[in-house]
Design a protein that fits this description.
Blueprint (H helix, E strand, L loop, with lengths): L2 H28 L6 H22 L9 H27 L2 H8 L2 H12 L6 H18 L10 H20 L6 H20 L9 H25 L4 H4 L5 H14 L5 H25 L1
Helix pairs in contact: 1-9, 1-11, 2-8, 2-9, 3-7, 3-8, 4-7, 4-11, 5-6, 5-7, 6-12
Length: about 290
């Protein structure tokens, strides 16, 4: 397979991954009026954990004993994963799909900045400038102190912080640790944690339609995870990674056709800034590696 074919294959899987994640978010948002947050996460977690367990068993990674150092990192990574899940879904339950997704697109900028500050990775002045402009784009989307401000946007920003921490911790894991085992551990932990919290709240009846939505969410999030891993294994990362911004297109389309949501002009302007600066940082990283 040529480099061009590998890049195109990676780009296709990255776009498929983003579609999977947004379809998961759509399914979750559809049950927001019928179920509480923690009950939703718990029920989705059951299906997702079973599917991940089957996949881990298929890959021979169901039973694995990580080193003590890796076990500590996995524990903190799972904490960050849980924080990101609850923060983002809280935002998703209470604000338009495209807005919550747009805020989350500042993640590559946040990870680049955190890697520079805490991992010692070299970042030039151009990328620092792009990060600064990108965060201005986030402020345009959030619009604190204005009439269009939604306090739940702060939960989406909290999710960005937790995912940044998760990604930094993932970078510290030894290469021998199976990714599917780490994902299974996080999924099972979040399932149990949300189940314990849901047990203290009013348990709502689950209709057949709601059960279908939750099962669909679990399947789509697994598709998103597998497609993302596949995308990173084909083509150059600097070529494939910018295609993750296709998530905004999916979010806009599903937000409009499923929920009748139309983002305002400020949200679109802020999203364009964030995406543009994100793509620029990927480009500068590619140049610096050369």
């Amino acid at each position: 397979m040529t480099d061009h074919q590998s890049n195109m294959k990676g780009a296709f899987f990255m776009m498929a991954s983003m579609a999977g994640f947004v379809l998961n978010d759509t399914m979750i948002k559809l049950v927001a009026e019928d179920l509480e947050l923690f009950q939703t996460v718990f029920l989705r977690g059951i299906v997702a954990t079973v599917l991940l367990g089957l996949l881990a068993w298929h890959k021979g990674a169901l039973v694995y004993r990580p080193a003590r150092r890796d076990l500590t990192i996995i524990g903190w990574r799972t904490f960050a994963e849980a924080g990101a899940t609850f923060c983002f879904l809280t935002a998703l339950f209470n604000m338009p799909l495209a807005n919550a997704t747009a805020i989350l697109q500042s993640l590559p900028l946040a990870v680049t900045l955190a890697a520079s500050l805490f991992l010692g990775q070299k970042v030039g002045w151009r990328r620092y400038l792009a990060i600064s402009i990108g965060f201005i784009g986030v402020l345009i989307i959030v619009r604190p102190g204005t009439e269009g401000f939604n306090v739940y946007a702060l939960w989406a920003l909290g999710a960005v912080g937790f995912v940044t921490l998760r990604d930094l911790l993932s970078h510290k894991l030894s290469p021998a640790t199976p990714s599917i085992f780490v994902a299974l551990y996080a999924s099972a932990t979040i399932m149990v944690l949300s189940g314990l919290i849901a047990a203290t709240q009013e348990w709502r009846d689950v209709s057949l339609q709601t059960a279908i939505y939750l099962s669909g969410a679990a399947v789509f999030i697994l598709v998103g995870y597998i497609a993302a891993v596949t995308a990173m294994r084909h083509g150059e990362i600097s070529f494939v990674s910018p295609f993750r911004y296709s998530v905004l297109i999916w979010a806009l389309l599903l937000g409009f056709f499923v929920f009748g949501e139309t983002p305002d002009g400020w949200t679109i302007i802020g999203s364009v800034i964030v995406v543009g600066m994100g793509i620029f940082t990927f480009y500068r990283e590619r140049i610096s590696k050369r």
